């Protein structure tokens, strides 16, 4: 009798364990997965890091978010009005395009030329918008500089702020409200990983690594379609 009772208890416990295991598996399979963060492509990272070092208001997350909004990192992007990974109009490129890869020519389709030119132009726009109301705060200056990149500096100066152009307003919002927070989080993870790697490598006599700049001057900022420099 005791043996039979023990068998029933064992069967009950085993059945209960199976039910619990099934519930845990179902919960794991149906749990919402963490959204994947955008990252700076490894082939573009050295270019982006070098570009932001030449322009104090910029940061890796901010420039990356802007490139993402402009072209989705595609060097062959062509909207019909703007070209390349940084979406320069021909007129704006003629003035601000520079030879970044040292081959003797400024090529809008070459990221090593376009990204440093983008950073250089953005730095200029930060200076231009200083006379516009709202530019005294870090967020305000960034909003205005981005708007100037998209709509042209003259449009921002005439409007004394972000122009009432839906494309431009969506562009600024997409970068600052949607993309920048994601790239900021992504960059923080990258820097933690690099720091961990550096720490591990430093323990080895032959190992070494380095971290990269990621300070985000628009950290107080709250993020449309590829556009940029449509109107010189």
How would you explain this protein's 3D organization?
- This protein has 232 residues and is mainly alpha-helical.
- The protein has a domain at 45-202: Orthogonal Bundle (Lysozyme).
- Helices cover 57% and strands 0% of the residues.
- The chain has 8 helices and no strands.
- It has helices at residues 2-30, 45-53, 60-71, 90-96, 111-128, 138-151, 153-159, 166-202.
- Helix 3 crosses helix 8 (166-202), helix 5 (111-128) packs across helix 6 (138-151) and helix 6 (138-151) crosses helix 7 (153-159).
- The longest helix has 37 residues, at 166-202.
- The chain is globular and about 80 Å long.
- The termini are far apart.
- 35% of the residues are buried.
- The model is unreliable at 207-212 and 219-226 (pLDDT under 50).
- Residues 61-169 form the Transglycosylase SLT domain.
- This is Transglycosylase SLT domain-containing protein.
- Residues 186-197 have a biased composition (Basic and acidic residues).
- InterPro entries: Lysozyme-like_dom_sf, Transglycosylase_SLT_dom_1.
- Residues 200-232 have a biased composition (Low complexity).
* Biggest sheet record: none
Instruction: Give the helices and strands as they follow along the chain.
Output: HHHHHHHH
* Corresponding CATH architecture of the domain at 45-202: Orthogonal Bundle
- How many individual helices? 8
Protein name: Transglycosylase SLT domain-containing protein
Region (Disordered): 186-232
Domain Transglycosylase SLT: 61-169
Biased composition (Basic and acidic residues): 186-197
């Amino acid at each position: 009798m005791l043996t039979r009772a023990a068998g029933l208890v064992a069967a009950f416990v085993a059945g209960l364990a199976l039910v619990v295991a099934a519930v845990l598996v179902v919960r794991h399979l149906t749990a919402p997965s963490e959204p994947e963060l955008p990252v700076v492509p490894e082939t573009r990272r050295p270019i982006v890091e070098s570009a932001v070092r030449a322009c104090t208001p910029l940061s890796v997350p901010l420039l990356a978010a802007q490139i993402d909004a402009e072209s989705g990192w595609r060097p062959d992007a062509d909207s019909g009005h703007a070209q390349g990974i940084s979406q320069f109009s021909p007129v704006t490129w003629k003035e601000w395009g520079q030879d970044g890869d040292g081959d003797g020519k400024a090529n809008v389709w070459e990221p090593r030329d376009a990204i440093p030119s983008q950073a250089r132009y953005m730095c200029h726009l930060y200076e231009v918008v200083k006379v516009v109301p709202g530019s005294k705060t870090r967020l305000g200056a960034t909003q205005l500089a981005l708007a100037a990149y998209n709509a042209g500096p003259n449009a921002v100066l005439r409007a004394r702020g972000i122009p009432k152009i839906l494309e431009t307003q969506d562009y600024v919002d997409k970068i600052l409200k949607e993309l920048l927070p994601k790239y900021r989080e992504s960059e923080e993870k990258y820097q933690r990983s690099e720091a961990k790697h550096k720490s591990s490598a430093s323990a080895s006599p032959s190992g070494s690594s380095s971290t990269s700049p990621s300070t985000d001057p628009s950290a107080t900022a709250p993020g449309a379609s590829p556009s940029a420099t449509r109107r010189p």
